[in-house]
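User: I would dearly like some help making sense of a protein record. This is the protein in question:
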Amino acid sequence: MTLEALERGASARIVSVDWDRLAPEEGARLRALGIDEGACIGMAHRGVFGGRDPLAITVGRMTVAIRRIHAAAMEVEPL
């Protein structure tokens, strides 16, 4: 399943990321925030309008906002 399909309040581990789907600077930003293969994340919130962007995910003690297109490039396994 992809990260964008993860339910609000659920936790998961990132299994793989299709870095080719993201711009190099976007990939570098996500890696700098600790969003990479093996990271444990949680779905905190979803946007409420239109495309439901952005998604708020927790990584450790941080809450990070990412776009759905970024989440769609990440395969996760629920914990």
Q: What stands out?
A: Residues 24-32 form the longest helix (9 residues).
